[in-house]
Amino acid sequence: MAAGSVAGSVRWAFLTGAMARLLPPAFAIVLARLLSPEDFGLLAVAMVVVAFVSLFQDLGLKQALVQRREAGSALKAAVFWGGIGLGGLWFLALWVAAPWLGEFYRSPGVVPVIRSLGALFLIAPLGAVPEALLLREMAFRRLFRVELLPSLAPGVVSITLAFMGWGVWSLVWGTLAGSALRVVGLWTQVDWRPSARPNAAQWRGLFRFGGWVSLEALLGWTITYADQGFAGRFMGAAQVGFYRMGFSLSLLPATGISQVLGQVTFPAFSRVQDDLPRVKEGFEKAVRTVALVTVPLGAGLAAFADPVLPMLLGPNWGPTVGVVQLLAAVGVLSSLVNVAPPLYRAIGRVDIMPKFFLARAAVSVPAYWYAAQHGLLVLTATHLGLTSVFAPINLGVASRVFGSSARSLAGAVGGPVACAAGAFAVARAVSLGIPAGLEPYGVAGAMAAFVLAYGALVRLALRARYQEFAGLFRSVMGTAPQRP
Question: In the chain, where are the structural domains located?
Answer without folding.
Answer: 3-404, 421-484
